[in-house]
Structure formats: C-alpha cells, structure tokens
Design goal:
Dihydrodipicolinate Reductase, domain 2, 9-stranded mixed sheet
C-alpha cells in the first residue's frame, strides 16, 4: 500500500455519531490514525462500534466521550446538532471534521465560525462529492484555464430517501424506535438545506463562492412522506461571485441523480453524470463532443476502494493531512459557511415565493454582526416524536415504522417500489428498446409473484393504522399511499399470481 504521509506521527480520533460516522471511520485504518473512542445515543450503534473497534472507549454520554484523550473528533450526529456539538468539541480541545452541513441557523453559524477562530483548532466540513475522480479531474483542468471563465452550471443531488424517514441508515434499514416516532430530521426536512453535494463540487472546481440565491417552491409531493411540504423537488438558482449561475437541484423525485454536474465555460463544456463524462470542445455551441475517461492523479489504488466514488477517502485524507503537516484543506470553516448559508438562504427565498436573497460572507465581521442574533429557520410542519394523537394506542402505532419499512425498504428494490417496477414494466414491455431491459422487467415480475403476500399483508396493516387514526399525519399519508394502489388486485393474491404467471409464460426475451 502507498505510504500516505511522510511522518510517523499519528492522530487519535473519536467518532461522535456511529452510523455514518462509523462507516467513515473504517477508512481511517489506512491513514496515520488510531480510532480510540465512540459516542452514540443508540445502543445498537454502540454495540456494533465496540465489535468493529475492539478496545475503543464507547459511551452514550457526550461529556464522558469528550473527556477522553484524543486529538480530533468526527461529528456525524443529527443534522440540527452539528453546530452545538462542534462548539462543544472545540471547547474540549479537539480538532473537528463535521458532516454536512455546518449549522442550521445564521446565529449558529456566527457562533461556530468564532469558536473555530478562538480555538485555533482545525475545522473541516465532511463534504465528499467534490473529490470524486471526475470532479477532481474537472477541477484540475479548470484551474489550468481549460474551460475559460465560468458561465453556467447545473448540479444535482436528487436522493429519494423516503425510507430514511422511517428507518436508520444501518443494518439494512432498522425501523425507527419507538414505532410511533419518525427520524429526528429526515422526516421533516427541507432538502434545500442539504445542498452541499451539488453546490460543493462547483465551489471546489471554480474557487468561486455563492453570493445570491433564489428558490421557487414546488407544490407537488411524492406519496409516502409526512406533511404537505416534504418529498418535493427543490431547485434553486445560485449566483456565484464572478456573476455566473448554477441551477442547484436537490429533493426527491422518480429518478435519483447523485453525481451530476454540467459546467459551461467560455472555452469548453463538460457534462458529467453517474454514467459517463462528455466534453464539448471548440469554444462554440457546436463543438467537438468527446467521451472522457478521467484518471486519478494520485493514490488511485487507495481512493477507488472507498465510498462515494473515492470522496470518503479524500475528505478524511485532507483533514488528517492538515493536522499532521499544516497544509490547508479546501473545506475550512469559511468555505463550509458559504455552502451552508447558500442552503439556508434558499429556504428563506422559497418561503417568500422565490425572491432573490443575499448569501452573507462570514469572513466579514460586518456580515457576522448582521446575523449574530438571527435564529430563524424553516417552519417545520410537525414534530417527529408527536405524529399521532397524545392518547394513541402503542399496540397499534408501534407498528407504524415497521410497516413503512416494509412498504418502502431501504435500498432493496422490494415493497411498493418493486411492485411499481413490475406493473409499470409490464405496461411498457413491448416498447423496451433492448433485451437487457426486458430481462429486468421479467425478473421484477417474478419477484412480485413471490413477494405479493408480504406486500398485501403490509397494505392491510397500513390500512388498520390509517383507519384507527384517520386524521393524524400518518393516517392521511397512508391513505394517500393506498389510494395510488389497486388494493383489490393486491389482495386477490392467488388470482393475481395466476395473471402474472400467464404474462410471464407469454413473454420470453431474445437469446
């Protein structure tokens, strides 16, 4: 393995938030890092960490955790706690790398910036998408002047994670407990806040900062989300510091786009997606189009083995490098504040119907003073722990998140998504362009034959909860989900299976 740092010095690391944090910490094994402590409020997270990291100190008590002897802390706690936990860790004398985003309100942002400055400690934002192989390649060319001046870009991070409203992002999607609660922030979250995966790469590539933002509200939601404003597409238009524009797209839709960036410069254009990269050369609209295969400049054998297309490696690498050598990384507290504030101000623009809102620069004391007491945030529609009436029956409501994880399982292609894949695939089967697509549909129909009884049972249980609490948020949401389904067709298990078998017998893909 390549030697990452030309030093024998090591960094003792603690992890606060052992779900995503525990996953990230696995990559520290290839660096000059000793993982010595973990903290999480959930017992199953602590048990897994203790098993994965024998000998590490593990606790649910944050004060006990921060009192341990380590140099730096990886904060991957709940979104709205990031500022509070960052300040507490800095005050305990720790370097901090914090999951996105850095804070939830402008006043928190001022407090975090000034806590970092006062502490003299290193702060890095754990934003990984700028460090994919493709985005690092684009950055190198941009910095060399290849694309000319930045004009316009379209960045997307669409992640339809409805299942994460009801399940923890571990062990295949354990239902949130107790079952009458939902996830502390994902369930009631305006995704304009979560803009770093789409705006972050452009900032890193160009070195520009966001200065203004406008976000027109979308008023159509996907079924399966609690509340009227969740499960929507959340586009914003961001003006960058050179006058160029970014269409920044977050939210939930019927096609995820995790790593999409199209960038137009005055000399060249690049279009990058999950599937391929193309460049348009010639400094004109009808220039030569080329498919590209970018390479890592360094440490490819290490980076390519880590998550998020190598981004997880680089974000950790740059943080540890700064601690060991002093060489600055991009995601310091000021760039972290820029990307975080762009999301906060997009939410404010959306709440006002799409007006243009300035993005403050917290490098400036004058800007900080303007927002020092600004505690405003998105007005949430409900509290995640109070979605049923106070006098609810836990014998009924305790099954809610279990049922939701059956209807919308985590990343498994089962439940209602699988049902829609099979049924909608049958409708367009004869128009599918290639044999591979027809084979996929046939496989999903076969899966539906096997799993129809489980889907039918989950729908019956959902109906019971909705009938028991029809005026509650879960009741209204479940009725909305069930109204999109042909329940008679689903509940007629044997009759429906016979029809599916007949359809399968009549369709054979080409050899």
């Amino acid at each position: 393995m390549e030697k990452l740092f030309d030093t024998d010095k090591r960094v003792k690391l603690g992890v606060w938030g052992l779900g995503r944090g525990g996953n990230l910490a696995n990559y520290t094994k290839i660096m000059n890092v000793d993982l010595v402590a973990g903290c999480d409020i959930h017992p199953h997270m602590r048990e897994k960490f203790a098993k994965d990291v024998p000998g590490a100190f593990v606790t649910a008590d944050e004060d006990e955790f921060l009192a341990q002897d380590f140099d730096a802390v990886l904060i991957a706690t709940y979104f709205k706690d990031h500022a509070k936990h960052t300040i507490k860790a800095l005050n305990a004398g720790k370097h901090v790398m914090c999951e996105v985003t850095s804070f939830y309100t402008p006043a928190e942002g001022v407090a975090v910036v000034e806590a970092v400055e006062k502490s003299g400690k290193i702060y890095n934002l754990l934003e990984n998408y700028p460090f994919t192989r493709q985005n690092m390649y684009i950055r190198k060319l941009y910095q060399e002047g290849f694309f000319g001046d930045f004009m316009y870009a379209e960045g997307s991070y669409l992640h339809e994670c409805r299942s994460l409203c009801y399940a923890y992002n571990v062990s295949g999607g354990l239902p949130v407990e107790p079952g009458w609660h939902v996830h502390s922030w994902r369930s009631c979250f305006n995704t304009l806040y979560y803009n770093t995966h789409s705006l972050g790469p452009l900032m890193h590539i160009t070195g520009l900062r966001p200065v203004q933002v406008s976000a027109i509200p979308c008023e159509v939601s996907m079924p399966g989300y609690l509340g009227e404003k969740n499960g929507r597409m959340c586009p914003s238009m961001v003006r960058m510091s050179n006058g160029g524009l970014l269409r920044n797209l977050m939210g939930a839709g019927t096609s995820d786009r995790h790593r999409e960036l199209c960038l137009w410069g005055t000399k060249a254009c690049v279009e990058n997606s999950d599937f391929e990269m193309q460049m348009r050369l010639g400094a004109c609209g009808a220039g030569m189009r080329l498919k590209m295969n970018p390479k890592w400049e360094a440490m490819a054998s290490v980076a390519e083995k880590t998550g998020h297309c190598g981004g997880d490696f680089w974000e950790l690498y740059y943080f540890i490098r700064e601690i060991l050598t002093g060489e600055k990384s991009y995601w310091d507290i000021y760039n972290a504040s820029d990307v975080t504030l762009a999301g906060i101000m997009a939410v404010r623009s959306q709440e006002k119907g799409g007006v243009l809102v300035d993005v403050p620069d917290f490098r400036s004391k004058e800007d900080r003073d303007k927002y020092r007491n600004d505690h405003g945030s998105y007005a949430e529609e409900f509290h995640p722990e109070h979605i049923f009436p106070e006098d609810h029956d836990p014998a009924i409501t305790g099954n809610f998140t279990k049922i939701m994880t059956k209807l919308y399982p985590l990343y498994s292609g089962k439940g209602l998504p699988m049902l829609h894949m099979a049924c909608d695939g049958m409708r367009v089967y004869d128009d599918i362009a290639n044999n591979d697509g027809r084979i996929l549909v046939i496989a999903k129909v076969g899966q539906l034959v096997r799993e129809l009884p489980e889907i039918a049972e989950a729908c019956r249980e959902a109906q019971k909860i909705a009938d028991a609490y029809p005026d509650s948020l879960p009741g209204k949401m479940l009725y909305g989900v069930l109204s999109t389904l042909d329940l008679d067709w689903i509940f007629d298990i044997e009759g429906t299976r016979a029809k599916l078998y007949k359809w399968l017998a009549e369709r054979k893909p080409e050899a």
